[in-house]
Write a structure and sequence with these properties.
The complex is a heterotetramer, with 2 copies of chain A (233 residues) and 2 copies of chain B (217 residues). With 233 residues, chain A is an alpha/beta fold. Chain A has one domain: Glutaconate Coenzyme A-transferase (3-Layer(aba) Sandwich), CATH 3.40.1080.10. Chain A is 20% helix and 25% strand. Chain A has 6 helices and 11 strands. In chain A, the strands form 2 sheets. In chain A, strands 1, 2, 3, 4, 8, 9, 10 and 11 form an 8-stranded mixed beta sheet that branches. Chain A has a 3-stranded antiparallel beta sheet with strand order 5-7-6, with helices on one face. In chain A, strand 6 and strand 7 form a beta hairpin. The radius of gyration of chain A is 18 Å and the shape is globular. In chain B, the strands form 2 sheets. Chain B has a 10-stranded mixed beta sheet with strand order 4-3-2-1-5-8-10-11-12-13, sandwiched between helices. A 3-stranded mixed beta sheet of chain B has the order 7-6-9, with no helix packed on it. In chain B, helix 5 links the parallel strand 12 and strand 13. Classes of the chains: A alpha/beta (233), B alpha/beta (217).
């Protein structure tokens, strides 16, 4: 039971060209910054990335797009990224857009061993093309399949040496779902603690789902839309 | 004609104490500014938060705490964080009482199009398809006509649709409309807007009752 | 937004004969003691109870069986209860036994708006009789439907006035799943706090799923199998 | 013949460092007492716990902390609690490395019956059907024959089955058996038990290799 690795580079040693990766985060919130940097440095190519968004031009998955590492994105929203748009329009990049709840639920299905789930999202739209529909209680649902990915790359707030994870605020988002869904799950945490330091009642992801864990460095946590209100004083 | 703030203000009349509400990006977000005094509503943000508070004070932004529009926000007493599967689970199970969305087009059977303009950049549907497919009560905030004067309240959507037969009410810059078997049912006129103006601006089936009051704020 | 009621009696005011109730707990661990007592006192009849177990002769759902209030039990294991056995063999009580994971997942499906789920549990057994099967990736699954219940009766450790809940240790079990699944969800807690007293990162059940909440009294928390090891000293 | 403790002790040889293991009620529970020195395994209890510790000291029982057999237990550093859906989710997703169960009957194709005896009281399957349908590796701990001498290693189960073609290995009081296309494959004999005794006690197809060592502890 040795899940702790030294850093992102060591953690991704066996990720190869052409693989399918899940990457946690919503926008730039809760993304695995260290792991993305390691993927960029390693120069892997032809990756399929399952992630709600595709980062911005110069941060997050945007960095992988800059390096033309991504063959296909499976996302719900990709509108923050000019390089993304260029590659899409030029045909360099494949994109599969799916509803956000479908994305989340297909991750959960993988983590819970459910091969398929039913959702009404996308019924009657182009998302439904080629998919099986089914009526329950008079309402139509699409059958959507669990994701099948080689690796899940996840960012948590705190973790322990057994791989137990706690997320913080809305940086939770897709992270615990993808943590459950990867054939191999790699987690970077802001703080890595000895087993026993986390309250067993308050762990979001049990370590049984986690294969490798390390403490990340130099978190930038860039904000996409800084919205504030003026101070009264 | 109503401006965006007034559309939001009118939609706020639909709020009831204790409602759980999901507000989409754009005009719907503004609705939060018009919650009546003394009323408690709980805002759901589909990226994983119930109990969304106002923007933070300058300098107190938390990069781990954003809404579905990726804006920095705050929590309030009673807030809860959860993952995206539970977030859309509660949406799909009908636990959110009211959803307010923007739209490019709405059809007189309640179809909505708000995610894609073919030939232009496609940004993706985000959570919109999940919301429209599951919400019990959907109100759309929208401009009645495009900039070149074409109606966006249609007999059928021309753009790729987001969901079928789901919109219950539309608040446009010209008026308030229910959608039922009669099509768009004109409930209220914007101040100074005549029924005739609305009839001319509406391509879809429009039912005009005998009395159409002007809206009040 | 007034979810707080005074006590169990007030909380169940509109539960009627013949309704379907979900009751949280595993064995006697984490059962809604106050609510069960109120159901017994009210003398409701012909209830259908969805609960992993049926209590013991003189505690938990066993008290409802003593009062012949239960028409049908939907459970995974009912072996701790002699009165249960008597009523079953005499034909007074209907019982539907389903796998424990199927029970849990059908609750979750209801709470997540998924009309049906697929599980391999029970394939090829008498549990599969009359159920649709489907093969995914060479493995056979049963299609199981979300539960449809009138009320969910739940026991949590701490809760706040908005209905947010935290469970403790293995008293969590089916409670958060049933909390999500009830058309109306009633929760008794050991400690009821003002909104804002619970850490938003550590809430197991968001209040949106909870309709009524009260602070329970006089918890007995009976232990079914007291197993201990001797002290060394 | 092995006694219950010895069956558990032999099964403990199958443990590997870092395994997540679910132990059923009865003999399987005893396996926890024979984890080799220096090896770490994590016990999953399907009522919602990873990292099950030993029984508490007298007077320190916590009624909120029990295992799937409803026994009072303790946690260890690194323990986690979760709900029953996640518990069976991780079982269904194949995250539990080894499952040890008791059985009333096992067939030579791996079918198992361990939940019901028609005509007698039916207690229910609990989590057994979920476990056998999903576990990657199932070892059965059982008595080879019933009290009246009938084999419980059969060509097909006579009792209502719990799951199909799922058992990979059987440790009985007479020996250790793999199950593959040849049926029961005799790997080891219990001390002092002859191959002939095992052949006579096994109703299902039995493959006997040339060499069948006596098991060691």
């Amino acid at each position: 039971m040795n899940k702790v690795v030294q850093n992102a580079q060591e953690a991704i040693f066996d990720i190869q060209d052409g693989m399918t990766l899940m990457l946690g985060g919503f926008g730039l919130c809760g993304i695995p910054e260290n792991l993305i940097e390691a993927l960029v440095n390693k120069g892997l190519k032809n990756l399929t990335c399952i992630s709600n968004n595709a980062g911005v031009d110069d941060f997050g998955i945007g960095l992988m797009l800059q390096g033309k590492q991504v063959k296909k994105m499976i996302s719900s929203y990709v509108g923050e990224n000019a390089e993304f748009e260029r590659q899409l329009l030029s045909g360099e990049l494949e994109v599969e857009l799916i509803p956000q709840g479908t994305l989340a639920t297909r991750c959960m299905a993988a983590g819970y061993g459910m091969p398929a789930v039913f959702t009404p999202a996308g019924v009657g739209t182009e998302v439904a093309h080629g998919k099986e529909t089914r009526v329950f209680n008079g309402k139509t649902y699409l059958m959507e399949h669990a994701f099948d990915s080689d690796f899940a790359l996840v960012k948590a707030w705190k973790g322990d040496t057994q791989g137990n994870l706690i997320f913080r605020a809305t940086a939770r988002n897709f992270n615990p779902l993808m943590a459950m869904a990867g054939k191999i799950t790699i987690v970077e945490v802001e703080e890595l603690l000895p087993a026993g330091e986390l309250d067993p009642d308050q762990i979001h992801t049990p370590g049984i789902y986690v294969h490798r864990i390390f403490q990340g460095l130099n978190y930038e946590k860039r904000i996409e839309q800084r919205t504030v209100k003026p101070r009264q004083d | 004609m109503l401006n965006k703030e007034q559309i939001a203000q009118r939609i706020a009349h639909e709020l009831r104490n204790g409602m759980y509400v999901n507000l989409g990006i754009g005009i719907p977000t503004l609705v939060a500014n018009y919650v009546p005094e003394g009323m408690t509503i709980v805002l759901q943000s589909e990226n994983g938060l119930l109990g969304m508070g106002p923007f933070p004070f300058d300098g107190e932004e938390d990069p781990d705490l954003i809404n579905a529009g990726k804006q920095t926000i705050t929590t309030i007493p009673g807030s809860v964080f959860f993952d995206s599967a539970m977030s859309f689970g509660m949406i799909r199970a009908g636990k959110v009482d009211l959803t307010v969305l923007g739209a490019m087009e709405v059809a007189d059977n309640g179809d909505i199009a708000n995610w894609k303009i073919p030939g232009k950049m496609v940004k993706g549907m985000g959570g919109a398809m999940d919301l429209v497919a599951s919400a019990k009560n959907i109100i759309v905030a929208m401009q009645h006509c495009s900039r070149d004067g074409k109606s966006k309240l249609l007999s059928s959507c021309s753009l790729p649709i987001t969901g079928l037969a789901c919109v219950k009410k539309v608040v446009s810059d010209l008026g308030v409309f229910d959608i039922d078997h009669r099509g768009f049912v004109l409930l209220e006129r914007a101040p100074g807007i005549s029924v005739e103006t609305i009839v001319n601006a509406t391509e879809g089936r429009l039912h005009v009752p005998d009395q159409v009051p002007e809206m009040t704020f």
